[in-house]
Amino acid sequence: MLGRVVPWAFMMFWAVTAFAQQPAPALREQAAWAQGVSPEQRKAAAELLEQGNRLLKDSIFTEAEKKYVEALKYWKHPAIYYNLALALLNLDRPSEVYEYMVASTRYAEGPLGEERFKHALKYIERVEKENARVSLSCTNGTRVTLKREDQLLPIHCERFERLLRPGSYTLIATQNGTPVPDTALVLAPGEHIRYRLGIESRRRWAAWMPWAVLGSGVAVAVGGRLIHMKARDEFQAFDSGVDACGGCVPGSELSGIRTRARTLQAVSMGTYAVGGAAFATGMVLLYVNRLQPQMQLIPLQGNALTVVPVAAAGESGLLASYRF
Fold first, then answer.
1. Which residues of 52-63 are buried (b: 16+ CB within 10 A; e: fewer)?
2. 171 and 149, same structural domain?
3. 80 with 166, same domain?
4. How many domains does the chain have?
5. 172 domain-assigned
6. DSSP code of 34?
7. How many CB atoms lie within 10 A of CB 13?
8. For residue 304, is it within any domain?
9. Structural element, H or E, at residue 104
10. 306 in a domain, yes or no?
11. Cα–Cα distance measured from residue 231 to residue 264, given in angstroms and rounded to the nearest whole number
Protein backbone atom coordinates (compact mmCIF):
# COMPACT_ATOMS: atom_id res chain seq x y z
CA MET A 1 0.00 0.00 0.00
CA LEU A 2 2.80 2.42 0.86
CA GLY A 3 4.30 1.98 -2.61
CA ARG A 4 1.12 3.34 -4.14
CA VAL A 5 0.72 6.20 -1.68
CA VAL A 6 3.94 8.10 -2.45
CA PRO A 7 3.32 8.80 -6.18
CA TRP A 8 -0.27 9.64 -5.40
CA ALA A 9 0.67 12.23 -2.82
CA PHE A 10 3.15 13.83 -5.23
CA MET A 11 0.63 14.04 -8.08
CA MET A 12 -2.10 15.45 -5.85
CA PHE A 13 -0.03 18.13 -4.11
CA TRP A 14 -0.39 20.80 -6.76
CA ALA A 15 -4.07 20.03 -7.25
CA VAL A 16 -4.87 20.44 -3.56
CA THR A 17 -3.01 23.73 -3.45
CA ALA A 18 -4.74 25.05 -6.53
CA PHE A 19 -8.26 23.91 -5.81
CA ALA A 20 -9.04 22.41 -2.41
CA GLN A 21 -7.80 25.39 -0.40
CA GLN A 22 -9.76 27.90 -2.43
CA PRO A 23 -13.37 28.76 -1.53
CA ALA A 24 -16.00 27.43 -3.86
CA PRO A 25 -16.77 30.05 -6.50
CA ALA A 26 -20.24 31.33 -7.16
CA LEU A 27 -22.70 29.02 -8.86
CA ARG A 28 -23.68 29.67 -12.43
CA GLU A 29 -27.38 29.23 -12.94
CA GLN A 30 -26.95 27.22 -16.15
CA ALA A 31 -24.78 24.49 -14.58
CA ALA A 32 -26.88 21.34 -14.93
CA TRP A 33 -25.09 19.56 -12.07
CA ALA A 34 -26.03 22.40 -9.69
CA GLN A 35 -29.74 22.58 -10.40
CA GLY A 36 -31.91 21.92 -7.38
CA VAL A 37 -29.03 22.39 -4.93
CA SER A 38 -29.48 25.16 -2.37
CA PRO A 39 -26.66 27.55 -1.40
CA GLU A 40 -26.53 25.93 2.02
CA GLN A 41 -26.07 22.50 0.47
CA ARG A 42 -23.38 23.80 -1.87
CA LYS A 43 -21.50 25.38 1.01
CA ALA A 44 -21.67 22.22 3.13
CA ALA A 45 -20.50 20.06 0.23
CA ALA A 46 -17.63 22.45 -0.60
CA GLU A 47 -16.39 22.41 3.00
CA LEU A 48 -16.46 18.61 3.13
CA LEU A 49 -14.72 18.45 -0.25
CA GLU A 50 -11.89 20.64 1.02
CA GLN A 51 -11.54 18.51 4.13
CA GLY A 52 -11.44 15.36 2.01
CA ASN A 53 -8.83 16.88 -0.30
CA ARG A 54 -6.54 17.69 2.62
CA LEU A 55 -6.88 14.13 3.93
CA LEU A 56 -6.23 12.77 0.46
CA LYS A 57 -3.08 14.89 0.20
CA ASP A 58 -1.88 13.37 3.48
CA SER A 59 -2.67 9.85 2.20
CA ILE A 60 -5.38 9.31 4.81
CA PHE A 61 -7.62 7.63 2.27
CA THR A 62 -10.21 6.04 4.57
CA GLU A 63 -11.02 9.34 6.27
CA ALA A 64 -11.01 11.13 2.91
CA GLU A 65 -13.58 8.63 1.66
CA LYS A 66 -15.86 9.44 4.58
CA LYS A 67 -15.69 13.17 3.83
CA TYR A 68 -16.50 12.65 0.15
CA VAL A 69 -19.39 10.31 0.91
CA GLU A 70 -20.78 12.85 3.35
CA ALA A 71 -20.36 15.62 0.76
CA LEU A 72 -22.38 13.62 -1.78
CA LYS A 73 -25.34 13.68 0.60
CA TYR A 74 -25.49 17.43 0.07
CA TRP A 75 -24.45 17.64 -3.57
CA LYS A 76 -23.86 14.89 -6.10
CA HIS A 77 -21.23 16.92 -7.89
CA PRO A 78 -19.11 15.06 -10.50
CA ALA A 79 -15.90 16.38 -8.91
CA ILE A 80 -16.81 14.73 -5.60
CA TYR A 81 -17.40 11.44 -7.41
CA TYR A 82 -14.04 11.81 -9.13
CA ASN A 83 -12.11 12.53 -5.92
CA LEU A 84 -13.92 9.69 -4.14
CA ALA A 85 -12.77 7.38 -6.94
CA LEU A 86 -9.17 8.51 -6.41
CA ALA A 87 -9.38 7.77 -2.69
CA LEU A 88 -10.87 4.32 -3.23
CA LEU A 89 -8.27 3.50 -5.85
CA ASN A 90 -5.65 3.59 -3.12
CA LEU A 91 -7.84 1.41 -0.91
CA ASP A 92 -7.86 -1.34 -3.55
CA ARG A 93 -11.60 -1.12 -4.21
CA PRO A 94 -11.63 -0.98 -8.01
CA SER A 95 -15.28 -1.89 -8.45
CA GLU A 96 -16.40 1.28 -6.69
CA VAL A 97 -13.67 3.28 -8.42
CA TYR A 98 -15.18 2.41 -11.78
CA GLU A 99 -18.71 3.20 -10.62
CA TYR A 100 -17.72 6.65 -9.38
CA MET A 101 -15.57 7.37 -12.41
CA VAL A 102 -18.61 6.73 -14.58
CA ALA A 103 -20.70 9.01 -12.36
CA SER A 104 -18.08 11.77 -12.63
CA THR A 105 -18.39 11.86 -16.45
CA ARG A 106 -22.15 12.32 -16.51
CA TYR A 107 -21.92 15.98 -17.53
CA ALA A 108 -18.85 15.59 -19.77
CA GLU A 109 -15.84 17.82 -19.11
CA GLY A 110 -17.75 20.83 -17.78
CA PRO A 111 -17.48 20.14 -14.03
CA LEU A 112 -14.12 18.31 -14.18
CA GLY A 113 -12.03 20.05 -16.76
CA GLU A 114 -10.64 18.56 -19.94
CA GLU A 115 -7.61 16.78 -18.43
CA ARG A 116 -9.46 15.02 -15.62
CA PHE A 117 -12.39 14.17 -17.86
CA LYS A 118 -10.04 12.49 -20.35
CA HIS A 119 -8.35 10.61 -17.52
CA ALA A 120 -11.72 9.30 -16.32
CA LEU A 121 -12.67 8.20 -19.83
CA LYS A 122 -9.36 6.39 -20.32
CA TYR A 123 -9.79 4.55 -17.04
CA ILE A 124 -13.35 3.54 -17.96
CA GLU A 125 -12.28 2.40 -21.44
CA ARG A 126 -9.38 0.33 -20.13
CA VAL A 127 -11.50 -1.43 -17.53
CA GLU A 128 -14.22 -2.23 -20.06
CA LYS A 129 -11.65 -3.76 -22.43
CA GLU A 130 -10.05 -5.85 -19.70
CA ASN A 131 -13.30 -7.19 -18.29
CA ALA A 132 -16.57 -8.71 -19.47
CA ARG A 133 -19.82 -6.79 -19.38
CA VAL A 134 -22.66 -8.92 -18.02
CA SER A 135 -26.38 -8.27 -17.69
CA LEU A 136 -28.56 -10.95 -16.09
CA SER A 137 -32.24 -11.13 -15.22
CA CYS A 138 -34.39 -13.92 -13.82
CA THR A 139 -37.95 -14.73 -12.79
CA ASN A 140 -39.60 -14.10 -9.44
CA GLY A 141 -39.02 -16.79 -6.84
CA THR A 142 -35.54 -17.49 -8.18
CA ARG A 143 -32.44 -16.83 -6.09
CA VAL A 144 -29.15 -16.87 -7.97
CA THR A 145 -25.56 -16.56 -6.76
CA LEU A 146 -22.54 -16.11 -9.01
CA LYS A 147 -19.51 -18.03 -7.76
CA ARG A 148 -15.86 -17.79 -8.72
CA GLU A 149 -13.38 -19.75 -6.66
CA ASP A 150 -14.27 -18.82 -3.06
CA GLN A 151 -16.09 -15.60 -3.92
CA LEU A 152 -19.90 -15.46 -3.91
CA LEU A 153 -21.83 -12.61 -5.52
CA PRO A 154 -25.64 -12.52 -5.06
CA ILE A 155 -27.59 -11.64 -8.19
CA HIS A 156 -30.59 -9.35 -7.91
CA CYS A 157 -32.95 -10.78 -10.48
CA GLU A 158 -34.71 -7.54 -11.29
CA ARG A 159 -31.44 -5.91 -12.36
CA PHE A 160 -27.92 -7.28 -12.34
CA GLU A 161 -25.50 -5.36 -14.55
CA ARG A 162 -21.81 -5.69 -13.86
CA LEU A 163 -18.32 -5.75 -15.27
CA LEU A 164 -16.64 -8.97 -14.18
CA ARG A 165 -13.17 -10.42 -14.49
CA PRO A 166 -12.79 -12.81 -17.44
CA GLY A 167 -12.80 -16.50 -16.55
CA SER A 168 -15.07 -19.33 -15.47
CA TYR A 169 -18.01 -18.75 -13.14
CA THR A 170 -20.72 -20.96 -11.68
CA LEU A 171 -24.36 -19.94 -11.41
CA ILE A 172 -25.93 -21.42 -8.27
CA ALA A 173 -29.72 -21.11 -8.15
CA THR A 174 -32.81 -22.14 -6.23
CA GLN A 175 -36.41 -21.74 -7.29
CA ASN A 176 -38.94 -21.42 -4.49
CA GLY A 177 -36.42 -23.13 -2.23
CA THR A 178 -35.73 -26.03 -4.62
CA PRO A 179 -32.07 -26.36 -5.68
CA VAL A 180 -31.32 -26.09 -9.40
CA PRO A 181 -28.29 -27.82 -10.96
CA ASP A 182 -25.33 -25.47 -11.29
CA THR A 183 -24.64 -23.83 -14.64
CA ALA A 184 -21.23 -22.76 -15.94
CA LEU A 185 -20.63 -19.28 -17.35
CA VAL A 186 -17.37 -18.44 -19.16
CA LEU A 187 -16.51 -14.79 -19.78
CA ALA A 188 -13.93 -13.37 -22.18
CA PRO A 189 -12.24 -9.92 -22.01
CA GLY A 190 -14.29 -7.20 -23.69
CA GLU A 191 -17.28 -9.50 -24.10
CA HIS A 192 -20.77 -8.04 -23.81
CA ILE A 193 -23.45 -10.56 -22.89
CA ARG A 194 -27.08 -10.33 -21.82
CA TYR A 195 -28.94 -13.36 -20.55
CA ARG A 196 -32.30 -14.10 -19.06
CA LEU A 197 -32.00 -16.93 -16.57
CA GLY A 198 -34.95 -19.21 -17.22
CA ILE A 199 -35.85 -22.09 -14.91
CA GLU A 200 -37.66 -24.89 -16.72
CA SER A 201 -38.77 -28.33 -15.58
CA ARG A 202 -37.12 -30.86 -17.86
CA ARG A 203 -36.45 -34.59 -18.08
CA ARG A 204 -33.14 -36.23 -18.87
CA TRP A 205 -34.67 -38.32 -21.62
CA ALA A 206 -37.95 -38.56 -23.47
CA ALA A 207 -40.79 -39.49 -21.12
CA TRP A 208 -41.53 -42.75 -23.01
CA MET A 209 -38.04 -44.24 -22.61
CA PRO A 210 -38.26 -45.41 -18.96
CA TRP A 211 -41.76 -46.71 -19.60
CA ALA A 212 -40.46 -48.65 -22.61
CA VAL A 213 -37.78 -50.30 -20.45
CA LEU A 214 -40.34 -51.02 -17.74
CA GLY A 215 -42.81 -52.41 -20.26
CA SER A 216 -40.18 -54.63 -21.87
CA GLY A 217 -39.34 -56.04 -18.45
CA VAL A 218 -42.99 -56.88 -17.84
CA ALA A 219 -43.29 -58.43 -21.33
CA VAL A 220 -40.19 -60.59 -20.81
CA ALA A 221 -41.47 -61.70 -17.39
CA VAL A 222 -44.84 -62.65 -18.92
CA GLY A 223 -43.00 -64.62 -21.61
CA GLY A 224 -41.04 -66.34 -18.86
CA ARG A 225 -44.29 -67.27 -17.15
CA LEU A 226 -45.62 -68.85 -20.34
CA ILE A 227 -42.40 -70.85 -20.78
CA HIS A 228 -42.62 -71.89 -17.14
CA MET A 229 -46.16 -73.16 -17.69
CA LYS A 230 -44.99 -75.11 -20.75
CA ALA A 231 -42.20 -76.65 -18.65
CA ARG A 232 -44.76 -77.61 -16.01
CA ASP A 233 -46.88 -79.34 -18.64
CA GLU A 234 -43.85 -81.29 -19.88
CA PHE A 235 -43.01 -82.44 -16.35
CA GLN A 236 -46.60 -83.54 -15.85
CA ALA A 237 -46.46 -85.49 -19.11
CA PHE A 238 -43.25 -87.17 -17.97
CA ASP A 239 -44.77 -88.10 -14.60
CA SER A 240 -47.88 -89.47 -16.30
CA GLY A 241 -45.73 -91.59 -18.61
CA VAL A 242 -43.80 -93.09 -15.70
CA ASP A 243 -47.01 -93.84 -13.82
CA ALA A 244 -48.52 -95.49 -16.90
CA CYS A 245 -45.68 -98.01 -17.15
CA GLY A 246 -45.83 -98.81 -13.44
CA GLY A 247 -42.67 -97.03 -12.46
CA CYS A 248 -40.47 -98.43 -15.18
CA VAL A 249 -37.16 -97.01 -16.24
CA PRO A 250 -37.97 -94.13 -18.65
CA GLY A 251 -37.36 -94.91 -22.25
CA SER A 252 -35.93 -92.59 -24.85
CA GLU A 253 -39.28 -90.91 -25.45
CA LEU A 254 -39.91 -90.18 -21.79
CA SER A 255 -36.31 -89.13 -21.30
CA GLY A 256 -36.73 -86.64 -24.14
CA ILE A 257 -39.82 -85.21 -22.48
CA ARG A 258 -37.94 -84.80 -19.19
CA THR A 259 -34.97 -83.15 -20.91
CA ARG A 260 -37.25 -80.72 -22.74
CA ALA A 261 -39.06 -79.89 -19.49
CA ARG A 262 -35.77 -79.16 -17.72
CA THR A 263 -34.62 -76.96 -20.59
CA LEU A 264 -37.87 -74.97 -20.59
CA GLN A 265 -37.64 -74.58 -16.82
CA ALA A 266 -34.09 -73.20 -17.05
CA VAL A 267 -35.13 -70.83 -19.83
CA SER A 268 -38.08 -69.58 -17.81
CA MET A 269 -35.84 -68.88 -14.79
CA GLY A 270 -33.44 -66.89 -16.97
CA THR A 271 -36.35 -65.04 -18.50
CA TYR A 272 -37.67 -64.16 -15.07
CA ALA A 273 -34.24 -62.76 -14.13
CA VAL A 274 -33.98 -60.67 -17.29
CA GLY A 275 -37.55 -59.41 -16.99
CA GLY A 276 -37.08 -58.56 -13.32
CA ALA A 277 -33.86 -56.67 -14.02
CA ALA A 278 -35.52 -54.73 -16.83
CA PHE A 279 -38.48 -53.93 -14.60
CA ALA A 280 -36.20 -52.68 -11.79
CA THR A 281 -34.17 -50.64 -14.28
CA GLY A 282 -37.36 -49.09 -15.62
CA MET A 283 -38.42 -48.08 -12.11
CA VAL A 284 -35.04 -46.46 -11.46
CA LEU A 285 -35.20 -44.64 -14.79
CA LEU A 286 -38.68 -43.38 -14.00
CA TYR A 287 -37.33 -41.81 -10.82
CA VAL A 288 -34.23 -40.36 -12.45
CA ASN A 289 -36.27 -39.05 -15.39
CA ARG A 290 -38.77 -37.18 -13.26
CA LEU A 291 -39.29 -33.49 -13.99
CA GLN A 292 -36.47 -31.43 -12.47
CA PRO A 293 -35.75 -27.69 -12.64
CA GLN A 294 -32.97 -26.79 -15.06
CA MET A 295 -31.39 -23.38 -15.66
CA GLN A 296 -31.45 -22.02 -19.18
CA LEU A 297 -29.28 -19.08 -20.32
CA ILE A 298 -31.46 -17.29 -22.86
CA PRO A 299 -29.55 -14.64 -24.88
CA LEU A 300 -31.14 -11.19 -25.11
CA GLN A 301 -30.66 -8.47 -27.68
CA GLY A 302 -29.08 -5.09 -26.97
CA ASN A 303 -26.20 -3.82 -24.88
CA ALA A 304 -25.86 -4.33 -21.17
CA LEU A 305 -25.41 -1.47 -18.76
CA THR A 306 -22.31 -1.29 -16.62
CA VAL A 307 -22.28 -0.73 -12.90
CA VAL A 308 -19.46 -2.53 -11.11
CA PRO A 309 -16.26 -4.05 -12.51
CA VAL A 310 -13.37 -5.93 -11.02
CA ALA A 311 -10.04 -4.35 -11.93
CA ALA A 312 -6.51 -3.87 -10.67
CA ALA A 313 -5.55 -1.01 -8.37
CA GLY A 314 -2.67 1.39 -8.82
CA GLU A 315 -4.17 3.74 -11.41
CA SER A 316 -2.79 7.27 -11.32
CA GLY A 317 -4.96 10.35 -11.53
CA LEU A 318 -5.39 14.06 -10.75
CA LEU A 319 -7.43 15.42 -7.89
CA ALA A 320 -10.58 17.20 -9.04
CA SER A 321 -12.23 20.30 -7.65
CA TYR A 322 -15.51 22.06 -8.34
CA ARG A 323 -16.00 23.70 -11.70
CA PHE A 324 -19.06 25.92 -12.09
1. bbbbbbebbbee
2. yes
3. no
4. 3
5. yes
6. G
7. 12
8. no
9. helix 94-104
10. no
11. 5
126 and 7 within one domain: yes
Task: Give the E-state strand segments of 165-255 in sequence order.
Answer: 167-175, 178-187, 192-202
Cα–Cα distance for residue pair 267/251, rounded to 1 Å: 24
Nearest to 197 by CA among 164, 168, 160: 160
Tens of each residue's pLDDT in the chain, 324 residues: 323 333 333 333 334 333 332 322 333 344 788 888 899 999 999 999 999 999 999 999 999 999 999 999 999 999 999 999 999 888 877 778 888 999 999 999 888 888 989 999 998 888 888 888 888 888 777 888 888 888 888 888 777 888 888 889 998 888 777 888 888 889 898 888 888 887 777 788 888 898 999 899 899 999 989 999 988 988 888 888 887 877 777 778 878 888 888 998 899 899 989 999 999 998 999 888 887 777 777 887 654 333 333 333 344 445 554 444
Does the pTM surpass 0.85? The reply is: no
Q: What is the CATH number of the domain that holds 146?
A: 2.60.40.1120
Residues 175 and 152: their CA atoms lie apart, in Å, by: 18
Residues 51 and 137 grouped into a single domain: no
Q: Is residue 276 packed enough to be buried (19+ CB in 10 Å), middle (13-18) or exposed (0-12)?
A: middle
Which of 130, 162, 192 delimits the end of a domain?
Answer: 130
Nearest residue to 167 (alpha-carbon basis) of 136, 130, 201? 130
How distant, in Å, are the alpha carbons of 33, 230, 238, 262 from that of 242?
114, 19, 6, 16
Q: Are 168 and 238 part of one and the same domain? A: no
CB of 195 closer than 8 Å to CB of 136: yes
Is residue 294 included in any domain, yes or no? Answer: no
Whether residues 23 and 90 fall in one domain: yes
Q: Which domain holds residue 41?
A: 2-130
Hey, which residues does 197 pair with through a beta bridge? Answer: 138, 297
> Are residues 26 and 125 both part of a single domain?
yes
